[in-house]
Amino acid sequence: VQLQASGGGLVQTGGSLRLSCAVSGITFSSKTMSWYRQAPGKERELVAGITSGGGTNYADSVKGRFTISRDNAKNTAYLQMNSLKPEDTAVYYCHTHVITWGRTYWGQGTLVTVSS
Questions:
Q1: Is 78 in contact with 92 (CB distance < 8 Å)?
Q2: Residue 33's pLDDT is what?
Q3: Bridge partners of residue 36, in order along the sequence
Q4: What rounded mean pLDDT belongs to the chain?
């Protein structure tokens, strides 16, 4: 199972980025996908999740600015991030959990830096 995250970078306050998470080795369409982030000196936190049926949830801090989506034909999950703030600076990780295997999988992380 591989989760390959990409799309991070340096952006100014108010800018946008789109993160991608390409998944292989599992039946992507049936899995909930999530994005987490970890800022320096802080714990990893859930940013957004999307179920196999397309239901979504967001952290309060990103509601209205971030949008999670998925393309089952491409086995890829996305995180569109708009109106970025310096406090969004973190390493972003994609995540999934295979219930029947009892296993959790993480992507390698992609760094998002928002300059003020």
A1: no
A2: 98
A3: 46, 93
A4: 97
Report residue 79's pLDDT band, with 50, 70 and 90 as the boundaries: very high
Q: 72 Cβ partners below 8 Å, 6+ apart? A: 28, 29
In the numeric block, which tokens belong to residue 30?
A: 């049936």
Name the burial class of residue 60, with classes exposed (0-12), middle (13-18) and buried (19+) by CB atoms within 10 angstroms of its CB: exposed
From residue 76, how far is each of 11, 17, 40, 43, 61 by CA, in Å?
A: 23, 16, 27, 26, 24
> Which pLDDT tens digit goes with each residue over 39-58?
999 999 999 999 999 999 99
For residue 88, count other CB atoms closer than 10 A to its CB.
Answer: 22
CA dist., res. 86 & res. 98, Å (int): 33
